[in-house]
Design goal:
Length: about 280
Amino acid sequence: MEWIVNQKKEALLFDIDEGLLQDYFVKIDAGLWAKLFQLMPIGDARELLEKTANGISLPVLEKMIAVLAMLSKEKAFYGLVSNHFDTLPQSFEQLYGKQSKRVRKDALSHLFALDKTLSPADEKVNELAQAMFVDPEHSDICGVLIPSLLTTKTPTKLMGRLLDLSEGYLQNRVDNKPQPPADWVRPIPKTTSYQSQWDMLKDFLNSPDEQVFDFRKVQHERKLMEEAIRSVTIDLKMETIKKGSPHLLRITKTQDAYKRELKIWEKDVQLLEKVKNYRSS
């Protein structure tokens, strides 16, 4: 990239296919891309950005946001950056609607800086915020987005709207406290592996009253049963009782899933309180 910039060979980038261009875009430092775009006529820079953003992926989106944040500091690029900012809701909605991965913390920082520089219309801000909440992922909302939002005393308009949505998301979860299972029925895992083992456990798992299943078989069969249970996430614990021959594998139903959900809920309660305190300070 430095050679392209120094030799002014940016025209070469228009001749490669979109996939290869996007690979280069992701791997090369955002500062070098910003420098390259600044050396190009605005029309060419716009065309190259559009080519890069076609069929956008999450890594390309993250790098695009970083580059746009850098270019937004140059008055000559204000219009170009504003136009691309307006396309971000579509990109977020498209990507978030088909995958669980979300943009990382550094990309959010660039996005908030971009929002602060451009100061877009409320309609555009709301559109982007809504797109960022398509199929919300709890780990992202509570582990990345909200902590990023709580790091500044002067939130941008986008940050404020994201805080609205985050508070509503948390409030809905807090209002729906997990409840312990009504009985001892446990769902049979959706798996095609170890089918014979799950067939043996089927009646036990479907029973609302039975909590313990004693499986006295030879070591090979016990090992297969252990492997089956360990291969999935299920409310079962195992204990090998070596009294008697063959040994006995005791399988006991638990409430682990409920306990996990309850711990998550308790953290949501704490985080909601932080959000409310932040907004009232």
